[in-house]
Amino acid sequence: MTRVLVVGVGAIGGIVAAKLAGYAQVVGVDSNVAHARCISEHGLELQGATRLRAHFPCVTHASELIAQPFDAIVFLVKSRATAQVLQDLAGHLASRPLLLTLQNGMGNAELLAATGAPVARGATMTAGRYVAPGQVEHLIRGNTWIGPWQGSLADMRWFSDLLCAAGLPCEVLEDPMDTVWSKFVFNCVMNPVGALVAGHNAARYEVPEVCALVDTMAEECQQVVRALGGSFSFDPMAFVHKVRSGAVPLPRHAGSMALDIARGEETEIDALTGWIVVQAERLGIPVPACRTVTALVKGLEYAARERHSPAKESSA
């Protein structure tokens, strides 16, 4: 039976792992000790758009994995963790499994390609959120697109077929970057804004000043991507326009960055909006809105770490 390792079994990773568990031998890795233990002992419960309980082993570190080869490894950890995870998985890469990144930020595919294994890069419009240990809510059923970053279409078509069979519609593209750029710009804008409004999602769509900020950031991000030679397979802000017009209901989830701040964890700002700022500076493109939002999120990170530090808690 096909063996698939899912690294990062949180929101999207949890949905992917749970859906695949009925069609492949799935193993999970997640640094959340309580979450990993609950999955191994009681299974992973999906709520919302998908309701099921999937049973598969989940460990907290690659050193706990049984020394058996995997056919594919799916990366859904935060971008900042990719390099360390690859180092931890070194002993499982000799068989050259397919490495797939559906992560939000830039730079992950390049790290995976350095292993010499076939690498698929992609984007997904599936949305979810971590609820509690052993529980993930499936918020939006969305399509997934993958394509070769290193390797051939044949190296990854089989995995697309597996995702489709498991109820996760997936299309293989010769060049996935137009789709990756579209989702990337959406995340660069909406994720940090969600953190700035403290996870109150209505503020992202109903406060005029925030809507204006969103539109300005989107324009800046798209200008930088085009200057880099990129293009878009769909309007990165199409979903935002639909919510504003009432064509689709207001989502309940304000993005992973808001959850990171609430937990006192580091965000992916450097791999998202911060990456745009760095590229814009190199290209000589002014991006004042993105630059300001990046700085504010870094301030939020600092404040959240201070608030959740053991020293602060013990003195309270």
From TrEMBL:
Record function comment:
Catalyzes the NADPH-dependent reduction of ketopantoate into pantoic acid.
InterPro entries per the UniProt record, alphabetical: 6-PGluconate_DH-like_C_sf (IPR008927), 6PGD_dom2 (IPR013328), ApbA (IPR003710), KPA_reductase (IPR013752), KPR-Related (IPR051402), KPR_N (IPR013332), NAD(P)-bd_dom_sf (IPR036291)
Sorted keywords for this record are:
NADP, Oxidoreductase, Pantothenate biosynthesis
PANTHER family the record matches: 2-DEHYDROPANTOATE 2-REDUCTASE, PROBABLE 2-DEHYDROPANTOATE 2-REDUCTASE
**SUPFAM superfamilies (alphabetical):** 6-phosphogluconate dehydrogenase C-terminal domain-like, NAD(P)-binding Rossmann-fold domains
Specify the species. Answer: Ramlibacter alkalitolerans
Supply one GO molecular-function term: 2-dehydropantoate 2-reductase activity
* Catalytic reaction list: (R)-pantoate + NADP(+) = 2-dehydropantoate + NADPH + H(+)
Q: In which pathway does it act?
A: Cofactor biosynthesis; (R)-pantothenate biosynthesis; (R)-pantoate from 3-methyl-2-oxobutanoate: step 2/2
Domain named Ketopantoate reductase N-terminal: which ranges? 4-150
Provide the E.C. number(s) assigned to this enzyme: 1.1.1.169
Which residues belong to any copy of the Ketopantoate reductase C-terminal domain? 177-301
Traced from the root, the source organism's taxonomic lineage reads: Bacteria, Pseudomonadati, Pseudomonadota, Betaproteobacteria, Burkholderiales
Matching Pfam families: ApbA, ApbA_C
Q: What class of enzyme is it?
A: oxidoreductase
Protein name, entry field: 2-dehydropantoate 2-reductase
Homology family: Belongs to the ketopantoate reductase family.
